[in-house]
């Protein structure tokens, strides 16, 4: 049997910083992938809630590795796994994959904002779905897809108000063999909503608004 193991992601760094000029504070430093000690200070393995979600991949810490300040997440086809259960349905598991989730939760406060930035090399190989997102701790939405890479050779930037009211922007993802800078800025608006600005390689790609996201805790 041929074993395929392909990298989903290389993250050279990730940094999260509040956008309040009066109190700028780094929440996750750029040195987070310099050592396993640093990684484990800020991140847990798997999804924040466990190993399974709504897809055919089960997360496994064996698919997370660190080298020279870069985090690598890989996926591998697998057989013989027990199915996942999601929304009362059984989902067959066909892959093991790496994932990390931040230990802390992120909330856009009434007076400020948050910036998430990282340098990513991500594949668009068929069967993969690398993703970097924020999602609600206490119910769903909020969900902000800071970047999702698609087999179509596209990268997607999305904000969900509900499962059917979604702002979605797909753009071409050129030269996946190179690292690209992704930055997402979240700011409060009108005391309820959150404005989301999505940047790739220093250019603003799109601006979206998350309904009622202010003050709601999110997983990274
Ligand atoms: C989501 O809700 C916000 C706030 O009401 C609104 O500005 C935005 O346009 C909505 N998004 C979509 C896709 O309708």
TrEMBL record:
Residues 23-220 form the GH16 domain. Keywords: Hydrolase, Signal. Residues 1-16 form the signal peptide. GO terms for molecular function: hydrolase activity, hydrolyzing O-glycosyl compounds. PROSITE patterns: GH16_2. The keyword Hydrolase applies. This is Family 16 glycoside hydrolase. It comes from Delitschia confertaspora ATCC 74209.
């Amino acid at each position: 049997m041929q074993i395929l193991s392909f990298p989903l992601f290389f993250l050279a760094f990730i940094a999260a910083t509040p956008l309040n000029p009066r109190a700028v504070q780094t929440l996750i430093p750029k040195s987070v992938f310099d050592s396993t000690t640093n990684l484990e200070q800020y991140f847990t393995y798997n999804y924040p809630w466990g190993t399974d979600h709504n897809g055919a991949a089960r997360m496994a810490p064996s698919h997370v590795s660190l080298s020279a300040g870069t985090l690598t997440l890989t996926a591998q086809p697998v057989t013989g796994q027990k199915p996942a259960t999601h929304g009362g349905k059984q989902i067959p598991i066909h892959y093991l994959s790496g994932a990390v989730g931040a230990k802390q939760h992120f909330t856009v406060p009434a007076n400020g904002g948050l910036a998430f930035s990282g340098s990513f090399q991500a594949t668009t190989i068929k069967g993969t779905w690398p993703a970097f997102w924020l999602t609600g701790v206490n119910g769903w939405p909020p969900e902000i897809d800071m970047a999702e890479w698609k087999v179509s050779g596209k990268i997607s930037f999305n904000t969900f108000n509900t499962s059917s009211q979604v702002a979605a922007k797909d753009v071409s993802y050129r030269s996946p063999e190179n690292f690209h800078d992704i930055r997402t800025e979240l700011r409060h608006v009108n005391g309820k909503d959150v404005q989301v600005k999505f940047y790739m390689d220093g250019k603003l790609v799109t601006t979206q608004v998350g309904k009622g996201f202010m003050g709601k805790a999110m997983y990274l």
